[in-house]
Every structure is written in C-alpha cells, then in structure tokens.
Specification:
Lipocalin; globular
C-alpha cells in the first residue's frame, strides 16, 4: 500500500479548495462576439485583495479567429494612453491575453457585462456597462455574484464625466 505524505494531502486540499472557488463563477458560454463589440465602462469591482486595482474603459472589436482586439484606455494627467491587446478565446466565454484571463460571467450585450479578470493568484470581478448610468437591478445582480464568489463587497467606481480617449 502506498504512503501518502502530508505534502500530498495539502496539495490535494489546495486543489479541491481552488476548484470550489472557481466553480462559484458562472460562465456565459453562448457568447455572441459581434454583440460584445463596442465601448465598455467599469462600474463596480470586487476582489479578495486589500488594494483594489485600477480599472479602465475599453473598446472591443471582434477578430476573425473568434476573439477580440481590445483597446484599453488608460487616462494619464489630462491625456490618454491606449494599450492594444489581443484576446484569444480558449473556451466558450473564456479569453486570454498576456495580461491574464477574462471570463465573461454574464451579459445582455446592450447594458451590462460581468467579467472575472484573473492572473496568477489575483481575481477581480468587474461590472462593466455601456453607459455611465446603471440600473439598480443589475447592481443587485452583481452583488449577488460577488457574495457567491466569496469576494469582498463590490467597490463603486466613479467614471469620468468625459472620456479622455
């Protein structure tokens, strides 16, 4: 009979915990890439980290390969820097880039999109909207997903009144 070491038990428990955490995130698998195209603004975010990360607006353009070309708009002291990223679809609703992974949890394409951004051990849930004003029902829906994921309370993001880009 094989002997199981404490390290093996710890690794197994870690893998089970990781699976339980990631299973709490819904994935929208039937994404219409063309409907996702256009401008998105960050509205709320939730993370397990103490220090929230900066989130920026972006525009999506579908690519022939079934992914997206993303123009990430980064405001900088009265001007704007645009960072271009290619998002490759690795499975339905899941996209990767050199910056990490984006999992589309839910969207109605016209008003909101909930996304989990992750890289290494960092996870951020973000509520993006097409406009800077948002619906209370959608905010409530996002808070419910945050709670199920075991994240901290969603932080309200204040969009700039005028686009810098």
């Amino acid at each position: 009979m094989a002997t199981v070491t404490p390290v093996q038990v710890a690794l197994l428990l870690f893998a089970l915990c990781l699976q339980a955490v990631t299973s709490e995130i819904p994935v929208k698998k039937d994404i219409d890439i063309k409907k996702m195209a256009g401008k998105w603004y960050p509205v709320r975010s939730a993370t397990s980290e103490d220090q929230p990360r900066a989130l920026h607006g972006f525009a999506l353009e579908p690519t022939a390969s079934g992914g997206f070309a993303m123009k990430l708009e980064i405001p900088q002291k009265g001007s704007c820097s645009v960072k271009n990223l290619d998002l490759t679809q690795v499975s339905p609703g899941v996209f990767t880039s050199p910056e990490g992974k984006a999992t589309v949890m839910d969207t109605d394409y016209t008003t909101y999109m909930f996304v989990e951004l992750s890289k290494d051990t960092t996870r951020i849930l973000v509520y993006y909207a097409r406009e800077k004003k948002v619906d209370k029902k959608i905010k409530k829906k996002f808070r419910s997903i945050v709670k199920k994921a075991g994240m901290k309370t969603a932080k309200r993001l204040i969009p700039r009144k005028e686009d810098m880009c």
